[in-house]
Design brief:
The longest helix has 21 residues, at about 225-245. The strands form three sheets. Strands 1, 2, 3, 4, 5 and 6 form a six-stranded mixed sheet that branches. Strands 7, 12, 13, 14, 15 and 16 form a six-stranded mixed sheet that branches. The chain has a four-stranded antiparallel sheet with strand order 9-10-8-11. With about 475 residues, the chain is of the alpha+beta class. Helix content is about 35%, strand content about 20%. The protein has helices at about 15-30, 55-60, 130-145, 180-185, 185-195, 225-245, 290-300, 300-310, 315, 350, 365-380, 400-405, 415-425, 425-430, 435-450, 455-465, and strands at about 35-40, 45-50, 65, 90-95, 100, 110-120, 145-150, 155-160, 200-205, 215-220, 245-250, 265-270, 275, 325-330, 335-340, 355. Helix 5 packs across helix 6 (about 225-245).
């Protein structure tokens, strides 16, 4: 479980009781430094590091970092809002000891996600991890709901010896092919060992569709821990690859053509230990609450893309016939739909049934993506929304009348279009709060302006090694 209490100056009492023992254990294992990690509005993981001996100080009083990073772009230029983007001020980074882990792929280092609070001890309104924790806590208190979530991680593996900036696939062979697995068996075996050492439960690790592409699926956790795990998985994938002379890209589109890297989001609602997506009287075993939750997500998919597909490169990936889910439709195991209903195999439905949100990539801040998807689902639950008719096959085949009857329309085709949808969505903006909502808008428009006039190949190149 993730620590759900906000950090406080002086340290949370339970953390202070544990920190000396954890510090001694890490030092005994040869850990010299600790990576303190968070993800900014642009989807870039930013870090500070401290010596292991300074962990107690970090837990007690935090580590300073400027709030300006809330309006950094992926290319490190800065935009601003009415309250963010100036050189003024400071925040304190507080590590979550429940997620502290020694990094098997980076001997000598440990890793922990952080929450950010002000110097006065208040929640920082631009902290995405705090936002997600608040959404999860409110859902438990108001609705008695808990959630299980997981984020798929896809990445392209290139040769580390390739010319700077270029991507040369490290493996050849067919999609999902045994050839790729054999050629990278040493790397992937070491990766599995690193995940096991870090207590990351891996369900699948396999070659994917695009050139040099692999995917790892991990077990579900509470949403904050799931977002933390997504960040940790990428840190591990990159570190182990480097030790094998490889370079990895999590960018939505490594090149202008072909299938990009997704970050599909899986989510299920639970109450008192029961999965609401199985055993109910609605379609495919959904309970009324689960259907309304799903309908809320579906209704807000166009606005959600500003959060789940936040890069100009995201729209090189979001194309029909690439299983990216670019239409507002839902279906059981329908991989071209924006919302896929996963019922699970007979005998495992009560455990495995969940929703998969397809138009998500790894440029997305996972805390923002999960928080906004949950907020959309909760709004559907509050309004007792019902799902429209189910779609099957390729949604692009529907004529205008049939598409309208099923509520099927194309998701935004560009980042500015997604921002227009987001600006018009009061539910998402209210959930985020004005500071974070305005940061999302400013950063997305800044990214769009940064690539204005570039062709698709140059857009892909601009973001290839960022995420």
């Amino acid at each position: 479980m993730t620590t759900l209490a906000d950090p406080v100056p002086g340290g949370r009492p339970e953390d202070l009781r544990r920190v000396a023992g954890l510090t001694a254990d890490l030092a005994a294992r040869g850990v010299r430094g600790i990576v303190l990690a968070y993800v900014d509005t642009a989807g870039v993981c930013r870090v500070k590091t401290v010596p292991t001996a300074r962990l107690e100080a970090a837990v007690s009083w935090g580590v300073g970092m400027s709030p300006v990073f809330d309006t950094f772009l992926a290319g490190d230029s800065i935009v601003s809002t009415d309250v963010l983007g100036s050189p003024d001020g400071d925040l304190r980074l507080y590590p979550d000891l429940d997620q502290l882990v020694a990094l098997a792929g980076q001997p000598g280092w440990a890793w922990a996600p952080v929450d950010r609070i002000t110097q006065e001890g208040a929640r920082h309104p631009g902290c995405a991890r705090t936002f997600l924790r608040r959404i999860v806590t409110d859902a438990a208190e108001r609705h008695g709901l808990a959630f299980q979530a997981a984020i798929e991680v896809e990445w392209a593996i290139g040769l580390g010896s390739a010319p700077a900036g270029e991507f040369v696939p490290a493996v050849s062979g067919p999609a999902y092919g045994a050839t790729r697995q054999v050629e990278l068996s040493d790397y992937t075996a070491d990766l599995l060992a690193a995940f096991a050492a870090q207590n990351v439960a891996v369900e699948q690790l396999h070659p994917e569709y695009a050139a040099g592409q692999f995917e790892v699926s991990v077990g579900a956790l509470d949403p904050v821990a799931a977002a933390d795990r997504s960040v940790l998985v990428r840190q591990t994938v990159r570190a182990v690859a480097q030790r094998h002379g490889l370079r990895v890209s999590f960018a939505p589109a490594v090149s202008a053509e072909g299938v990009g890297n997704g970050g599909h989001l899986h989510l299920s609602c639970w109450r008192a230990g029961t999965n609401l997506h199985a055993g109910g009287a609605r379609r495919y075993g959904m309970t009324p609450e689960a259907e309304s939750f799903a309908a809320g997500i579906l209704a807000r998919l166009p606005a959600l893309t500003a959060v789940t597909a936040p890069s100009p490169a995201s729209y090189l990936r979001l194309k029909p016939a690439q299983w990216a889910g670019v239409f507002t439709g839902w279906g059981r195991e329908t991989r071209e739909a924006g919302l896929r209903l996963v019922t699970g195999t007979t005998g495992r439905q009560e455990r495995d049934a969940n929703l998969e949100v397809k138009p998500v990539d790894l440029a997305a801040n996972p805390y923002l993506a999960l928080g906004c998807v949950i907020a959309a689902g909760l709004d559907g639950l509050a309004g007792a929304l019902q799902l429209p008719g189910e779609i099957t096959g390729d949604p692009a085949r529907y004529g205008p009348d049939e598409a309208a009857a099923l509520g099927v329309r194309r998701l935004p085709r560009s980042l500015p279009q997604a921002v227009e949808e987001f600006r018009a969505d009061e539910v998402l903006r209210t959930a985020l709060g004005p500071v974070l909502a305005d940061a999302v808008t400013a950063v997305r428009l800044g990214e769009a302006a940064a690539v204005e006039g570039l062709d698709d190949a140059r857009v892909a190149a601009a973001y290839r090694w960022v995420y």
